Automatic annotation (TrEMBL):
Binding site for L-isoleucyl-5'-AMP: E574
The EC number(s) this enzyme carries: 6.1.1.5
Lineage: Bacteria, Pseudomonadati, Pseudomonadota, Alphaproteobacteria, Rhodospirillales
Keywords on record: Aminoacyl-tRNA synthetase, ATP-binding, Cytoplasm, Ligase, Metal-binding, Nucleotide-binding, Protein biosynthesis, Zinc
Span of the annotated motif 'HIGH' region: 59-69
UniProt xrefs under CDD domains: Anticodon_Ia_Ile_BEm, IleRS_core
Protein family: Belongs to the class-I aminoacyl-tRNA synthetase family. IleS type 1 subfamily.
Record localization: Cytoplasm
Single Gene Ontology MF annotation: aminoacyl-tRNA deacylase activity
Cofactor(s) needed by this chain: Zn(2+)
Name of the protein described by the UniProt record: Isoleucine--tRNA ligase
Binding site for Zn(2+): C909, C912, C926, C929
Length: 941
């Protein structure tokens, strides 16, 4: 471009920088938000509108933020902000889980590091340390969540350790007690011998574990079937230490069993030649291999139903285990593994417990809470089931009850905190019945009435509730809400009296739950009851009961700050592990105390893996700190990563994936920057009505109408991934690669009074408003920065706006179909021109004058339009005849071809660079450019 014409070109101008410098910019915007109290303004601006309530699932206040926190909170923020932009009233109250093992374990480890036994620390001191630790972490996490751009009521957050919260949790337990759902029972529960407490399924993780397995022989001492006379029933177990607790053997009625006699065994086999053994026929070969039996004689075959009435002796009979072991039919006895017989130890398995109690068999108490056998257990008294496992096995082998020992690697339950293996242990616990008051049926009905995103999670939660046992809510720990119950010394039954419950919970509300452990709470029984007749329950509640009760003290609160909240919430949003956690516990508390779920919809996101698909772990050192990402690239880049993934499935993150997010961000930022530059000095007086606009601008209006529908539907469906992809495609394909490309010549070179340029700038103004509002929930900082560059009032924030109102009149399907054809032709022409440029036959598409061949229906679409302008060439010839076979074509559009080798005739306009015949004389510019300069000069004068 000749220098003297440069000043006449209307190049975009803006102070909106190309580089976002988000790590520097975002804290400044955050400071401004705090200055104008934006979060409070968001609460008030739609105070009379329809509400949208997302209830926050509380994270544990026991550590620094990780990428899972960032994913979860950003998704919640997207839900809130999109609903706000859709005109709803939002009030997001963030919260924290403060009780339970995650925090107690941290404090206990600190005491252990100082050589102090936690049990020697006064309980009130220990609980205070837990409370202080949780408070510290809450403040740290609260600041860092806000750095992610999360809007919320950060001054009025909730915690489960607040006195009013502890009181309400206790009230929920009281409701369960009064309606009969809560009962004291004896059952095998998942137990941690390291943490010395029962664990919920949600506190368990399964790891690959190598177990020593053993086959035991039980001698038949009574039978109604002569085929079983003088035989030994063989069982197999992955927990040989439980043999002390055996009280029965289960068999399957339809299984074919075989009686065999070893006639040859390996040198180191524990099997004896001549003994008669009974196993399932289908499992005989596998058993022989494990027992190192080389050959057997088959003596008899019998059905499981023929075994009824058979009694065995315990393998350790004669050593303190002198009791009969009956064989009992059971559906869970299968031929999947083992021998077809199942060793039944009712203190160490749920199926075992049920089978024995149904048949009147003893459920022994043999193992203390630390995994040590009680003193009354013969042979094994004082031994630890984990530490002395091999010793226990050796003793049992020496007593002759074992016929084979091997190993198996299998998934095994571990505590996700102590990372140690768990056992099933029969203990006295407090349970919520799934059958009393039809809790299971109510919960299943409520699941069916709930919207699930994705829909597949509906089946997952339903199956869990269908199959779950009664909920064990008691924990033998220190840091938690106590189960506020007194039991009768005479009957063992809990005292059910609402007046007593009210006195306890009201005291909790004013003094905190610590008083249960520090004061003489027996006085709360008076005057109606004699304290000497009762015992005080010292167990604390399962932390999932705490979090499952949050709707009761947040959504139904009488706190003035939360007065606009209500239950059920419109949305609960957490990771997929919460089907067995918070979704589950909240459902059961809601259904058991109120008859309905505390939510209308559940959105589930997946777990995080690294970019190679591996689970993030300390051992692999593949975790990513969200704050490091923010310090390098900004929170908006992290937010783009969230929406660029299908978050309903497991997500991947890593340096290369984050680089893609940076690229996505730059393209969006460049789009906003181009719009701002194009709108330099724009005023509403320049705008023209849609009916007066050229077709191309009316096509853009149609696209805006279509995208607005998608954005609003995605808001309704919580589909932020599709929302982002739609916006991204619109910016990169419809705008940057097409509309901006076609119209930049008009923007730069048309006269200011040009109808085409005014129409384009009107569209740019509409696009700016739409894009900033559509992007506001995603790129919260960048949308604010862009919006404030044109709207700089004291309180003028994009986050106080709503989605743009898009008139239905902008819809034009006929025009959309027409421009679909035009763009298809353009793709072919662009491809042909790129080939010419690659072959260095042209430097610019404006040098070309292609011939384009197409069907007449496609050619008709160009009537009244400047095809050269659309193709960005100086000239073009359109033909409805068949193009030569050598013409350029795309495989997917075979009926459109292009010859791009022809050059435009004329001279180059030194202002707009088009090559035109009209460019002649000493002033080498075209007529349009002459008019533009004339208009510019006269306007200036």
């Amino acid at each position: 471009m000749i220098t003297k014409y440069k000043s006449t070109i209307f190049l975009p101008k803006t102070n909106f920088p190309m580089r976002g410098e988000l790590p520097k910019l975002e804290p400044k915007i955050l400071a401004w938000w705090k200055q104008i109290k934006l979060d409070q303004r968001i609460l008030k601006i739609h105070k009379n509108s329809e509400p949208f309530i997302l209830h926050d699932g509380p994270p544990y206040a026991n550590g620094d933020l990780h990428m899972g926190h960032a994913l979860n909170k950003i998704l919640k923020d997207l839900a809130n902000r999109t609903q706000h932009m859709n005109g709803k009233r939002i009030h997001y109250v963030p919260g924290w889980d403060c009780h339970g093992m995650p925090i107690e374990w941290k404090i206990e480890k600190k005491y252990r590091a100082r050589g102090i036994d936690k049990d020697t620390v006064p309980i009130i001191n220990f609980r205070q340390k837990c409370r202080e630790f949780a408070s510290k972490l809450i403040n740290i996490q609260r600041e860092k969540f806000q750095r992610l751009g999360i809007t919320g009521d950060w001054d009025n957050y909730y915690t489960t350790m607040d006195f009013k919260a502890e009181a309400q949790i206790a009230r929920e337990i009281g409701k369960l007690l009064m309606n009969g759902s809560l009962y004291k029972g004896e059952k095998p529960v998942m137990w941690s011998v390291v943490e010395k407490t029962a664990l919920a399924e949600s506190e368990v993780e399964y790891q690959d574990h190598t177990s020593i397995t053993a086959h035991f022989c039980f001698s038949v001492i009574k039978t109604n079937n002569r085929k079983l006379a003088n035989t030994k029933i063989v069982i197999w177990t992955t927990n040989p230490w439980t043999i002390h607790g055996n009280r029965a053997i289960a068999y399957g009625n339809t299984i074919d069993y075989v009686v065999v006699m070893p006639i040859a065994v390996a040198k180191n086999s524990l099997a004896k030649i001549g003994e008669k053994l009974v196993v399932a026929r289908s499992l005989l070969d596998k058993f022989k291999n494990q027992a190192k039996i080389e050959a057997t004689n088959e003596l008899a075959v019998l059905k499981g139903s023929d075994i009824e009435g058979t009694i065995c002796a315990h393998p350790l009979s004669g050593c303190g285990y002198e009791y009969e072991v009956p064989l009992i039919a059971a559906d869970f006895a299968t031929e999947d593994a083992g021998t077809g017989f199942v060793h039944i130890a009712p203190a160490h398995g749920v199926d075992d417990f049920i089978l024995c109690t149904e048949n009147g068999l003893e459920v022994p108490q043999t193992i203390a809470n630390d995994g040590v056998f009680y003193d009354h257990v013969p042979i094994f008294a004082g031994m630890n089931i984990l530490k002395d496992n091999l010793k226990i096995l050796s003793i049992m082998r020496d007593y002759g009850g074992i016929i084979a020992i091997s190993e198996i690697q299998h998934p095994y339950p571990y505590s996700w905190r102590s990372k140690t293996p768990l056992i099933f242990r029969n203990t006295v616990q407090w349970f919520i019945s799934m059958e009393t008051n039809a809790l299971r049926n109510t919960a299943l009905k409520e699941i069916d009435n709930t919207l699930f995103v994705p829909n597949s999670s509906h089946k997952r939660l339903r199956k869990m509730v269908e199959n779950r046992p009664d909920w064990c809510i008691s924990r033998q720990r220190t840091w938690g809400v106590p189960i506020p119950v007194f039991t009768s010394k005479k009957t063992g039954e809990p005292l059910r009296d609402q007046a007593v419950i009210d006195r306890i919970t009201n005291t909790f509300e004013t003094e905190g739950a610590d008083i249960w452990f520090t004061k003489d709470c027996f006085k709360l029984l008076e005057p109606e009851y004699d304290p000497n007749d009762y015992e005080q329950v010292t167990d604390v509640a399962d932390v999932w009961l705490d979090s499952g009760s949050t709707h009761a003290f947040v959504l139904e609160s009488n706190e003035p700050a939360w007065a606009d909240l209500s239950s059920p919430a419109h949305l609960y949003l957490e990771g997929s592990d919460q089907h067995r956690g918070w979704f589950h516990s909240s459902l059961l508390i809601g259904c058991s105390t109120r008859g309905h779920a505390p939510y209308k919809a559940i959105l589930t996101h997946g777990f995080l893996n690294d970019e190679h698909g591996r689970k993030m772990s300390k051992s692999l050192n593949n975790g990513i700190d969200p704050l490091q990402v923010i310090s390098k690239s900004g929170a908006d880049v992290l937010r783009i990563w969230v929406v660029s993934c299908d978050f309903t499935d497991d997500l991947r993150i890593g340096p290369s994936i984050l680089k893609h997010s940076v690229d996505h961000y730059r393209r969006l930022r460049n789009t906003l920057r181009y719009l701002l530059g194009a709108l330099n000095d724009y005023s509403d007086a320049e705008a023209i009505e849609p009916n007066d606009m050229p077709e191309l601008e009316r096509w853009v209006l149609h696209r805006i109408y279509e995208i607005d529908l998608i954005i609003r539907q995605c808001t309704k469906d919580f589909n932020y991934h599709k929302m982002f992809l739609t916006i991204q495609h619109f910016c990169s394909v419809d705008l940057s690669a097409f509309y901006f490309d076609v119209r930049k010549d008009s923007l730069y070179c048309d006269t200011k009074r040009s109808k085409r340029r005014r129409a384009m700038r009107t569209i740019m103004n509409i696009l700016f408003e739409c894009l900033t509002k559509w992007l506001a929930p995603i790129c919260v900082f960048t949308a604010e920065e862009a919006w404030r560059s044109r709207n700089s009032g004291e309180y003028d924030s994009i986050h106080l706006q709503e989605y743009p109102i898009v008139p239905v009149e902008w819809q034009n399907e006929t025009l959309a179909k027409k421009w679909l054809k035009i763009r298809a032709v353009r793709r072919v022409v662009t491809g042909a021109l790129e080939l010419e440029r690659a072959e260095k036959r042209i430097k610019s598409s404006l040098q070309a004058a292609p011939i384009v061949y197409m069907p007449s229906s496609d050619k008709a679409a160009f009537d009244g339009l400047s095809a050269a302008e659309i193709f960005i060439t100086s000239d073009v010839t359109l033909s409805d005849s068949l193009g030569p076979i050598t013409a350029y074509r795309l495989p997917e559009i075979p009926d459109i071809t292009c010859e791009a080798s022809l050059l435009a005739k004329g001279k180059k306009c030194e202002r707009c660079w088009r090559i035109l015949p009209e460019v002649v004389g000493d002033e080498p510019i075209c007529v349009r450019c002459q008019d533009a300069i004339y208009d510019l000069v006269n306007t200036t004068e």
